[in-house]
């Protein structure tokens, strides 16, 4: 269910739309060991025996926070826990859709023994190293499998315990999987450069002196397009690019990069993680663009048409805002840029 929209006018609505993506995903706070287990399961180089105070875990948390555009503190902030919960739940949902286990893998915020076991199943079936670690590459392959898989073979039931052993023998949890050598004590390192996570937002470049990038052009909608109309595939791809998602502009929306971007968007706004540009997803995109364009009207000295498309005028207004505020100038309305625009618009409305 999409987050409830509150506030007066579109300017205040934007603040709600850009809230932390997993507000409804996390049922409770992680314990330190549970959070370390989630980091380990998502591919960060920490051990299950490490504590959150150790330098390697603090560095992993900082890397996690930078990747998902969170305040970089190196601690278990609520926003960091929300993001981890959203990633783990998206991973579990994708595993259920691809593997069709019986019973289904419970969807919760914990990277426990069951999640690890089903990752091993997926890795074994795809002739990948069987580690039980859902690195960014594994999550990207899982997203692609959603598009390519036929009726999958049922996965045998596994232990219902959520406790994750420090060393798990694959054959003792899931009999059909042949034993595979376990990785070193340290978790599998994060791939470099990493691929986009299934539900992860595009990493945002750190703030730096104004750097002017080449102007990107976006399709200008036809004059006869009416509000409420769903996007064409080309229009939707350009919207994703305008919102800062790193997709291949020459590929269809079935391409892995687009599926990953759409699932990230869906997770951020509480939509079903279909990885497709379905009607609820397009409706939320229209709402985000209208809010963005309305707020640009409030903070800009130039008129901005509310078109529901990421056109050249919108890109130019975003570039002007970035230049005024000493941000990287690229015309892309990433999450951090939209948040900055929303904050200024909100202050002007309050005045």
Automatic annotation (TrEMBL):
Pfam families: PG_binding_1. Residues 38-79, 87-140, 290-340 form the Peptidoglycan binding-like domain. InterPro entries: Peptidoglycan-bd-like (IPR002477), PGBD-like_sf (IPR036365), PGBDSf (IPR036366). This is Peptidoglycan-binding protein. It comes from Romeriopsis navalis LEGE 11480.
């Amino acid at each position: 269910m999409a987050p409830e929209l509150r506030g007066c006018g579109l300017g205040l609505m934007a603040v709600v739309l850009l809230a932390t993506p997993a507000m409804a995903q996390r049922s409770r706070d992680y314990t330190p060991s549970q959070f370390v287990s989630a980091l380990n399961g998502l591919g960060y180089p920490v051990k299950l025996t490490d504590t959150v105070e150790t330098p390697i875990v603090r560095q992993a948390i900082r890397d996690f926070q930078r990747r998902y555009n969170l305040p970089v503190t190196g601690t278990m902030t609520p926003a960091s826990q929300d993001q981890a919960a959203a990633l783990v739940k998206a991973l579990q949902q994708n595993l259920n859709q691809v593997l069709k286990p019986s019973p289904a893998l419970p969807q919760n915020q914990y990277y426990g023994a069951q999640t690890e076991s089903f990752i091993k199943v997926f890795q074994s079936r795809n002739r990948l190293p069987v580690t039980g670690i859902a690195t960014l590459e594994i999550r990207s392959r899982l997203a692609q499998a959603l598009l390519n898989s036929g009726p999958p073979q049922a996965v045998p039931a596994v232990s219902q315990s959520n406790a994750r052993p420090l060393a798990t023998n694959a054959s003792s949890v899931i009999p059909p999987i042949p034993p595979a050598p376990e990785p070193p004590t340290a978790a599998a390192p994060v791939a470099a450069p990493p691929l986009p996570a299934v539900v992860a937002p595009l990493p945002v470049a750190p703030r730096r002196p104004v750097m002017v990038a080449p102007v990107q052009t976006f399709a200008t909608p036809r004059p006869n397009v009416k509000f409420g109309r769903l996007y064409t595939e080309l229009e939707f791809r350009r919207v994703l690019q305008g919102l800062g998602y790193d997709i291949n502009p020459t590929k269809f929306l079935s391409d892995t990069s687009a599926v990953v971007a759409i699932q990230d968007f869906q997770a951020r706004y509480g939509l079903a993680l279909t990885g497709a540009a379905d009607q609820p997803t397009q409706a939320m995109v229209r709402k985000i663009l209208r809010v963005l364009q309305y707020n640009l009207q409030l903070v800009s000295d130039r008129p901005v048409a509310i078109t529901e498309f990421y056109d050249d005028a919108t890109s130019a207004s975003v570039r002007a805002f970035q230049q005024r505020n000493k941000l990287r100038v690229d015309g892309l309305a990433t999450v951090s840029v939209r948040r900055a625009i929303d904050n200024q618009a909100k202050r002007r409305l309050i005045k």
